[in-house]
């Protein structure tokens, strides 16, 4: 029977049937950075991952029967062996397929000690190529890892593990041609029903993600180990530090709400963030021309809204060097009513690499006043809110200059008093604010 159990608020993830936290398996060590199965990769994985991280070794056999850790049966795919032994290329039938290259079975372990490891995935850095030699399984055991997973396949393949199975993550949660998640399969539930543990493979930070994850590998791990429907017993990853961070208990602070899923600082972004069980939600406080504090990712409406598509507002473009070098349409030049006529626009910070965020919802959601944000946060299961005030010096001079008798209603005072009221009502663990000019003093003439 599958047991889904919370042990406190994300203190530990215990959704697997064993009620143990999911295991992180470091595939060839930290192979996303270093050549797979080298000492650097294994040692870095041990130092940067969970205390119980399991090291993965793809075992091949040498001519003299020594088990070595290399990620591919063809040594030319993960070492510099063609340059060390150029005349030793051979062909073998492996699982019904004729393979040509350099094989460990044709060399003694002593001979292979002259062969340096290289990064087998060419999109990753070659900075650490040709630095260290091939490890024997006994070399890895001397590192005393909490666990060592020996993967024996191909020439000496032993049928599937008696206690569990390892499957590619896309077998568990398929991805559509449009790069969105489809419905998960039943394989995890079926495995657990049969009494088998199930581990998901093919996790890496530098591959294409479903839009549902907003290019956040931590979110991907959590969808496999911490969702109401199922949980795998562990993950096989090239980046064990990321998986460890997902399974640990970090303090999660949003950036304009769930701004990778919806346009930032909108109702949908904040609701999604709370549904995702974040700890703190944030509001970048901006001020309208009629002195209404609102939540918006930037003081420049060109960033995060469709203001440039509304002709009446394009004439309000101005350049203010104290704020930014480029021209903009600023929140304090429009009223709250006018801003509500705009549509939000999702941020795409990596557009130059053709990485776009959730295009199906690029203009979804509604803008919120600060009071809407605080009212929403008041009864939500979060640890606190963060109010961010930017360009405080400029706003102080601009908005108080021509109205000195209303200093008590200055936007910065409004924000800070709102913070106090929220603390009193909610007794939150933390309600933070930060300003780009923390030494601003607001002086009110009598």
TrEMBL record:
Residues 22-153, 250-446 form the GP-PDE domain. PROSITE patterns: GP_PDE (PS51704). One of its GO terms (biological process) is glycerol metabolic process. Keywords: Glycerol metabolism, Hydrolase, Signal. GO terms for molecular function: glycerophosphodiester phosphodiesterase activity. The keyword tRNA processing does not apply. InterPro entries: GP_PDE_dom, PLC-like_Pdiesterase_TIM-brl. The keyword Signal applies. It comes from the Eukaryota. It catalyses: a sn-glycero-3-phosphodiester + H2O = an alcohol + sn-glycerol 3-phosphate + H(+). Its EC number is 3.1.4.46. Belongs to the glycerophosphoryl diester phosphodiesterase family. This is glycerophosphodiester phosphodiesterase.
């Amino acid at each position: 029977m599958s047991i889904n159990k919370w042990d406190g608020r994300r203190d530990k993830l215990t959704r697997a049937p064993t009620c143990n936290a999911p295991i992180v398996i470091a595939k060839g060590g930290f192979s996303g950075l270093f050549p797979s199965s080298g000492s650097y990769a294994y040692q870095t994985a041990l130092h940067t991952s969970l205390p119980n991280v399991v090291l993965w070794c793809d075992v091949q056999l040498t001519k003299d029967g020594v088990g070595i850790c290399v990620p591919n049966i063809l040594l030319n795919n993960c070492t510099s062996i063609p340059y060390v032994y150029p005349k030793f290329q051979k062909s073998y039938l492996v699982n019904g397929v004729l393979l040509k290259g350099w094989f460990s079975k044709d060399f003694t372990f002593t001979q292979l000690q002259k062969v340096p490891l290289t990064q087998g995935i060419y999109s990753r850095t070659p900075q650490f190529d040709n630095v260290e030699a091939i490890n024997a399984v006994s070399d890895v055991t001397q590192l005393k890892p909490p666990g060592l997973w020996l993967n024996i396949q191909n020439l000496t393949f032993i049928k599937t593990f008696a206690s569990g199975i390892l499957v590619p993550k896309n077998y568990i949660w398929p991805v559509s041609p449009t790069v969105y998640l489809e419905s998960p399969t039943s394989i995890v539930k079926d495995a657990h029903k049969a009494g088998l543990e199930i581990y998901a493979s093919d996790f890496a930070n530098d591959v294409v993600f479903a839009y549902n994850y907003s290019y956040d590998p931590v979110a991907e791990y959590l969808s496999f180990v911490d969702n109401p429907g199922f949980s795998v017993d562990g993950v096989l990853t090239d980046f064990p530090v990321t998986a460890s961070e997902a399974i640990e208990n970090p303090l999660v602070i949003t950036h304009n709400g769930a701004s990778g899923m919806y346009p930032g600082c909108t109702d949908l972004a904040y609701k999604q963030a709370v549904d995702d069980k974040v700890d703190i939600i944030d509001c970048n406080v901006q001020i309208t021309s009629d002195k209404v504090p609102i939540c918006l990712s930037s003081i420049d409406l060109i960033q995060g809204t469709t203001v440039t598509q509304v002709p009446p507002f394009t004439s309000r473009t101005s350049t203010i060097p104290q704020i930014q070098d480029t021209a903009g349409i600023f929140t304090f030049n429009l009223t709250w009513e006018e801003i509500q006529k705009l549509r939000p626009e999702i941020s795409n910070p990596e557009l130059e690499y053709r990485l776009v965020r959730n295009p199906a919802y690029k203009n979804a959601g509604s803008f919120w006043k600060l009071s809407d944000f605080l009212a929403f946060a008041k009864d939500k299961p979060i640890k606190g809110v963060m109010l961010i005030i930017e360009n405080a010096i400029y706003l102080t001079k601009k908005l108080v200059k021509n109205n000195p008798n209303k200093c008590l209603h200055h936007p910065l005072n409004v924000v800070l008093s709102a913070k106090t009221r929220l603390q009193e009502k909610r007794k939150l663990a933390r309600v933070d604010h930060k300003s780009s000019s923390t030494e601003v003093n607001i002086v009110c003439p009598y």
